[in-house]
Design brief:
This protein is an all-alpha fold. Helices cover 73% and strands 0% of the residues.
Length: 75
């Protein structure tokens, strides 16, 4: 599933307009998809796009740093 989703994100990212991207994502969903399932898919694709953009721009933290941050939340 994740591999298929990543390919879908790559395909959608190559499209010209946001409206075209959203229509493609919706069109790829099964006909019996619920409103919530479609919204989740739209949100998922957007989160992946943002994550890839952050990664390409170097806006990342190491695994160790993330572990440290999480431990401070638990205190």
């Amino acid at each position: 599933m994740a591999c298929v989703a990543m390919e879908a994100v790559k395909e959608v990212s190559r499209m010209s307009s946001v409206k075209d991207q959203i229509l493609q994502i919706i069109g790829d969903q099964p006909d019996d998809s619920s409103y919530d399932e479609i919204l989740r898919e739209l949100a998922f694709v957007r989160m992946v796009e943002r994550g890839l953009s952050d990664s390409e721009a170097g806006r990342t933290v190491s695994h160790e740093e993330m572990g440290r941050r999480i431990r401070t939340w638990q205190s």
